[in-house]
Amino acid sequence: MKKYVLIFSIVISMLFISVIPVFGEEKSTDNSDGNLSLAPNAKSAILIERDTGKLLFDKNANEKLPPASMTKVMTLLLIMEALDQGNLKYDEIIRVSERAASMGGSQVFLEAGEEMSVEDLLKGVAIASGNDASVALAERIAGSEDAFVTKMNDKVKELNLKNTKFQNSTGLPAEDHYSTAYDMAIIAKELLKYETITEYTSIYEDYLRKGEKNEFWLVNTNKLVKFYPGVDGLKTGFTNEAKYCLTATAKKNDMRVIAVVMGAETTKERNATVSQMLDYAFNQFDTKKLFEKDQIITNLQLLKAENKNIDIVASQSISVIHGKGESTENINTEVHLNKEIDLPLKRGDQVGKLIVKNGEEVLSETPLTVEQNIEKASYFTLFKRSLQKLVKSR
User: Fold this and answer.
1) Domain 292-380 fold
2) Is position 89 annotated in a ligand binding site?
3) Which of 129, 134, 169, 202 is catalytic?
4) CA 137, CA 119: separation in Å to the nearest integer?
5) Residues that bind substrate, according to the entry (predicted)?
6) pLDDT tens, position by position, 168-225
7) Cα(351)–Cα(226) distance, rounded to whole angstroms?
8) Do 248 and 222 meet the contact criterion of CB atoms below 8 Å apart?
9) pLDDT of residue 343
10) Could you confirm whether 69 is annotated as catalytic?
């Protein structure tokens, strides 16, 4: 009898043990690899490769949550766009408004009427998550923070993001201010097209007003830039409602990934989760670089342009991602230029796309752009070309 009781007890124990993992699994939305243990302590998370946008892992990635100071990823994107377009200069001096100086939360303690360069204000945002620096730059770019927020939400629409809405440039608590892990990853992907941003987000410590009486020590809120090799950005976040959040990026060899974690209970859990996600990416995948950002892909002759020989460049770096040890022999690329191109063109305007394929399977499509402004040809230039064509035809 004791023998049967013992066997029965062992069987019941085995059944109980086998059931535990099933109930303990974290549910994930569209988790491409089925690895459900990467972010057990976060409300939502996502891991993507930057160049291709390939989803490597996600957990509740489309759940709307408060992004806290990760909002500044969008703020930084609009700042970098303004710098790239020449509407803002690094050495330009900005006078700080009373409103900007009055911002609470994380700040670099700007004073109303103080003057500071765009570059130093950018450091205040990128390193120390300064709400005051964010508003000062927002007011300079758009005239007011409200107008800047309109630009932020216009960019959300341009990126075709469905679950993000901003009410301020800082991430301070506000009603109807939300985003998702997926949307934050896409905004970060867009920001990283401006590769110089990591020259600021990777700084661990620096100073504002160095050598002056009111010198301020900047320390990066993202400790992984110091403690995880390859991490060079991007933005942390915390409020009582949002808990601990982080949009991080790291590069190893030619591979750059973006990891987003939202709603972790502690900084330790947040950083450990992001580290685990990055480990997974770099241990399981490799990338093959095809083209660098701004690399010339092809040339185009536009007879109605002032300078008819036009260089067409990659709008961002282009890669393919594959599992460790997988072959990339069947990778090929195709250039498709627009049939009709209207002049004038501004630097960065799209004139085609580069398609990357694995055999016949389309892996990615990347915009091809012009690297400089293209003006319409003057009447004199058109007349001269007509004469040259006439002479050649004789």
Assistant:
1) Peptidoglycan synthesis regulatory factor (PBP3), Domain 2 (2.60.410)
2) no
3) 129
4) 10
5) 235
6) 999 999 999 999 999 999 999 999 999 999 999 999 999 999 989 889 999 999 999 9
7) 41
8) yes
9) 87
10) yes
